[in-house]
């Protein structure tokens, strides 16, 4: 099977979701990902518990984002460890890191140091706010960025406190941005032979994903507030939101109030079917719809609404999701054998290619599992590798 990124070698210094999920995309597409970790303990997220628990000896969060990688442990503060990195970078196409800005520079392993060894290296740095500027020393973490960027302030109802997303939305979005940026850098490198430094940040991505809303804010005079009744966006009109039914919840997106009035047998709704009333009277409209929807089940309403092609859907929890027929059809849940957890279920590759499909070739690695393999390739003897292990260099 052809792999789009075959023969691309990536040195991955990342941790948490911003970096590892981004580099996992590259690994799924065939790149060789050499994950550089701390000796013994490995990446910090290996120990991040979900609901107080680990899976085997690792966090399920770590296992979700580190397949198709080889783990090499290196003490970056030891001169011999630094030498290993310098030797590896001469064989690599891409370096990815998300330390706080300046950390690798202080160790003599920043972009300017590595490009002297390999002028064609593409170096992608992920951070909270960017590599410089007034916030360069602030901690960059998903919840903090949601707070700083306006995302949390615009979620929830009128009287609710600012409400963050239920997942690490900014981390995930920035991981995708990082993977895209890395591919642009590699494309340029393959065409010209030139390397470059690329910076992505949680803060920039959090602002960029709000491009629609910020365009409205920057260019319109009117200001908005969150809905009291629970309309799903501060900027959109009724009926957009989540509604309770007789047996659960359903989402109703942007739809004609006139058609809803007909299907719900609520003639009054049609009176609101103009742009001004649909927005400014949204907190009158949503309760009318909500009261009517309690009369039937989600499935009954979905069947009725489908007769007029309305945009609506059942609200599913994870119990529903994992048995969803489209999830099965898209092969989105995969099972991987693992020596510590026996079997783990992970999310599959979320895109498809007709000619170069991604593959899951390697399970998430144990700490330092590939030390011998990678160092042997660099010319280190078994005796030298054993000595480096004994002295805590790897």
What would CATH call the architecture of the largest domain?
3-Layer(aba) Sandwich
Oligomer kind: single chain
What letter string, H or E per element, gives the SSE order? EHEHEHEHHEHHEHHEEHHHHEHHEEHH
The fourth-level CATH homologous superfamily of the largest domain is Crotonobetainyl-coa:carnitine coa-transferase, domain 1
| Estimated helix fraction | 25-40%
Shape: elongated
Strands, total number: 11
Number of helices: 17
Give the terminus-to-terminus CA distance: 34 Å
Return the CATH class of the largest domain: Alpha Beta
In order across it, which strands form the biggest sheet? Answer: 3-2-1-4-5-6
Our Rg estimate from Cα atoms comes to 25 Å
Q: Based on helices, strands and strand pairing, what is the structural class?
A: alpha/beta
Percentage of residues in DSSP E strands: 5-15%
Number of structural units classed as domains: 2
Folded structure, characterized:
With 394 residues, this protein is of the alpha/beta class. The chain is 37% helix and 14% strand. The model has no long low-confidence stretch (mean pLDDT 96). The radius of gyration is 25 Å and the shape is elongated. The chain has helices spanning 20-28, 60-64, 79-89, 103-106, 111-117, 142-149, 169-192, 202-208, 211-219, 257-264, 275-280, 282-293, 298-306, 318-321, 325-329, 371-377, 382-390, and strands at 9-12, 32-37, 69-73, 94-97, 122-127, 196-201, 241-244, 249-252, 312-314, 333-338, 342-347. The strands form 3 sheets. The chain has a 6-stranded parallel beta sheet. Helix 1 crosses helix 7 (169-192).
